[in-house]
Amino acid sequence: MNNKHKQMKFKNKLCRVIILGTNKSNLGLNYTLNTLKETHTASLNFIEAHHLYIISDDLINIGDYVIQTDLTDETLHLVRINDICEIANDIQSKVIASTDESLKLPLIESSFITNYVSKYNNGNIINDVLIKYEYRFPLNAMLNRKGKSWNVAINFNNEIIITD
Predict the structure, then answer these.
(1) pTM tops 0.85
(2) Which among 35, 158, 20 is positioned nearest to 96, based on CA atoms?
(3) Model pLDDT for residues 76-119, shown as the tens digit of each residue
(4) Does residue 110 sit in helix, strand or coil?
(5) What is the torsion angle, in degrees rounded to the nearest 10, for the CA atoms of residue 104, residue 109, residue 115 and residue 117?
(6) Range 153-156 contact pairs with CB under 8 angstroms and sequence separation of 24 or more
(7) If residue 117 lies in a helix (H) or strand (E), which one and from where to where?
(8) Segments of 57-155 assigned E as strands
(9) Closest CA relative to residue 93, chosen from 7, 37, 13, 3
(10) What are the φ/ψ torsions at residue 49 (nearest 5 degrees)?
């Protein structure tokens, strides 16, 4: 019974959208949801694959993925926090969702990806989105006031909820 939620509250939080190349090129002629940039080399068409990441200023813990800024050249890198890679909040932002299913994070809604690709290809890049968060207040926390927290709201398809 102590795993049940007695009270649920919601809020929207402004988060950033980051696009990073996968360092993989796929031979092909059509865009897919995870590819955005087409380049032509000789007579072959190559598609440079990309992933989208939604990042926030949420608390970073060991095991989390972060987008980290390299201070030497200001490039962005996807890093997983572990005992060797220390948490440095001033140059890292927590990844809360991605199009990269191998990360085992919540996914980004396909309708948003389609909209993002369309706007990106027209030069109108989406940099910020409002993400729905839920406030969980378990029954056992009512007495000791512990266990309360804001968490990214996820739909039944394991996708984050992007609000307008």
Answers:
(1) no
(2) 158
(3) 888 888 876 667 767 889 999 999 999 999 999 999 999 998 99
(4) helix
(5) 20
(6) 153/10, 154/106, 155/109
(7) helix 110-121
(8) 65-69, 76-80, 92-98, 128-138, 149-152
(9) 13
(10) -80, 145
- Lowest mean pLDDT of 33-37, 81-85, 118-122, name the range: 33-37
Phi-psi region of 147 (alpha: psi -120 to 50; beta: other; left: phi over 0): left
Residue 28 tokens, joined: 């092909």
Q: What is the C-alpha to C-alpha distance for residues 129 and 126, in angstroms, rounded to an integer?
A: 8
Output the six-digit token pair for 136. 């969980």
By C-alpha distance, which of 68, 67, 76, 75 is closest to 98?
Answer: 67
Q: What are phi and psi of 36, to 5 degrees?
A: -125, -25
Residue type for position 124 = N
- Separation CA 56–CA 93 (nearest Å): 6
Calpha distance 70→72 (Å, rounded): 6
Q: 3-class SS at 116? A: helix
* 126 touches 10 (CB < 8 A): no
Considering only residues 34 and 14, tell me which one the structure prediction assigns the higher pLDDT: 14
Which DSSP symbol is given to 19? E
